[in-house]
Design brief:
alpha/beta, Rossmann fold, seven-stranded mixed β-sheet, two-stranded antiparallel sheet, 16% strand
């Protein structure tokens, strides 16, 4: 039923109701401000979450290890804003490019509990291995890093993940003096050419450690160069996560 206004049969509009002046227009609602930084972070969160699902298909882990890795990635993203730990272009692919790439080493040394990671940098593969080793009796991962800021990050990463990592702030060539006790496997990633890596690792290998070095597409050229300085019988494993390779060495001997 229509209500009659004071001047006739026209129904009252909302603007002409009690307490409102006729003909007054309401102000347009203010447009919400868009926080571009927040929007970018949310978009990156979504991309990283999808990348994580793909990475865990390549390298499945327990729920406990996954939780530790989540804490590690959160810390890395926090520190990345002030310390360059990984190439910014790789942030969307942290899980496949860095986490899964590191985890695949475990399948090549399934019985290894004591690891030494030379030039740990942002923690790949060292912190990732420590997260996976947590809870195993006798497990220990030595993280050797010469840059103080990165060593500080590694210590915090070991703390927040409650993983069995030990950080050594030292030149890479001084690792033997810093690392006590036996080492089952020595690793390095994006540190130096292969012939130099062998020189760093040789004292540990002489004590029984196996070497697993993550290398890129130029691995054949690096092997050729390394053979000038070392007697080696390398075994190559193609990476699950890209075009790279893993060089496995069980013994080395200097030429000459």
């Amino acid at each position: 039923m229509k209500q009659r206004g004071p001047g006739g049969d026209r129904p009252l509009s909302r603007r002409q109701g009690a307490g409102e002046g006729a003909g007054r227009s309401e102000p347009a609602p203010a447009k919400p401000k868009i926080d571009k930084a927040s929007a970018n972070d949310q978009a990156l969160d979504s991309i990283i979450a999808a990348d994580k699902r793909e990475a865990l298909k390549l390298a499945p882990v327990s729920h406990e290890t996954e939780a530790r890795l989540d804490r590690y990635i959160a810390l890395l993203r926090e520190w990345q804003a002030k310390t360059n730990l990984v190439a910014p272009s790789t942030l969307p692919n942290l899980w496949t490019r860095h986490i899964a790439d590191s985890l695949q080493l475990i399948d090549l040394a399934p019985s290894a509990k004591r690891w030494a990671d030379l030039g740990s940098g942002g923690g790949f593969p060292g912190v990732v291995l420590a997260c996976a080793m947590a809870g195993k009796p006798g497990a220990r991962v030595h993280l050797v890093e010469r840059i103080a800021k990165k060593a500080a990050f590694l210590r915090e990463a070991v703390r927040v993940t409650t993983s069995p990592g030990v950080v050594h702030l030292a030149e890479i060539g001084d690792n033997v003096d810093r690392i006590t006790g036996p080492v089952d496997c020595v690793t390095a990633r994006a540190l130096a050419p292969l012939h130099q890596l062998i020189g760093f690792a040789e004292p540990l290998m002489r004590q029984g450690a196996k070497a697993l070095f993550l290398k890129g597409q130029d691995v054949e050229a690096e092997l050729t160069e390394a053979a000038k300085y070392w007697n080696i019988q390398p075994q190559l494993h193609q990476s699950r996560t890209g075009d790279g390779w893993i060089v496995e060495l069980t013994s080395v001997e200097r030429r000459g």
